[in-house]
Recover the amino acids of this structure.
């Protein structure tokens, strides 16, 4: 029988791969050799976090005039005089940065208005307080509270699960 060069190369490769597989099955390469332990390093000295100074309301107001992410943004529109009611006004956000407290309101005509604590709406209601979840307004001795909407998942469906028809295999 005469072997050509390709057949000999394939036989040698097969023998090498078979020997490698047998050595791996017998446990070669299952031990871990770790490097010797080094000297422990000293931890960096921990500094307390630097306290940032509170920004003035004038500096905060600049972010409402033009956003760095939306250069086309304009200042909030001023609404005309309305009735003395909070009907239709929704609380859409609360911003508390140290002493500065602002709320974002969605007005009945769907435009957004920012309001600082102590400021008054055109309809006479004054924002007297803000917490992370609600805003408190007062007008002529009355007090009303607007809360952020609490988003919840819908209840699970009561519809039966979808099942595939029982089709016998052809």
């Amino acid at each position: 029988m005469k072997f050509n060069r390709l057949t000999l190369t394939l036989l040698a490769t097969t023998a090498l791969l078979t020997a490698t597989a047998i050595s791996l099955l017998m446990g070669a390469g299952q031990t871990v050799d770790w490097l010797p332990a080094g000297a422990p390093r000293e931890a960096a000295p921990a500094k307390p976090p630097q306290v940032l100074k509170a920004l003035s309301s004038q500096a905060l107001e600049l972010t409402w005039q033009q956003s760095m992410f939306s250069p086309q943004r304009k200042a909030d529109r001023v609404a005309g005089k309305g009735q003395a009611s909070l009907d239709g006004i929704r609380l859409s956000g609360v911003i508390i940065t140290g002493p500065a407290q602002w709320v974002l309101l969605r007005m009945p005509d769907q435009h957004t208005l920012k309001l600082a604590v102590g400021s008054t709406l055109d309809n006479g209601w004054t924002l007297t307080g803000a917490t992370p979840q609600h805003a408190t307004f007062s007008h002529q001795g009355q007090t009303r509270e607007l809360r952020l909407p609490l988003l919840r998942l819908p209840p699970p469906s009561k519809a039966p699960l979808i099942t595939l028809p029982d089709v016998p295999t052809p």
User: Anything to note?
Assistant: The chain is about 20% helix and 20% strand. Residues 78-83 have pLDDT under 50 and may be disordered. The radius of gyration is 36 Å. The beta strands are 90-97, 100-106, 112-116, 126-130, 134-139, 142-147.
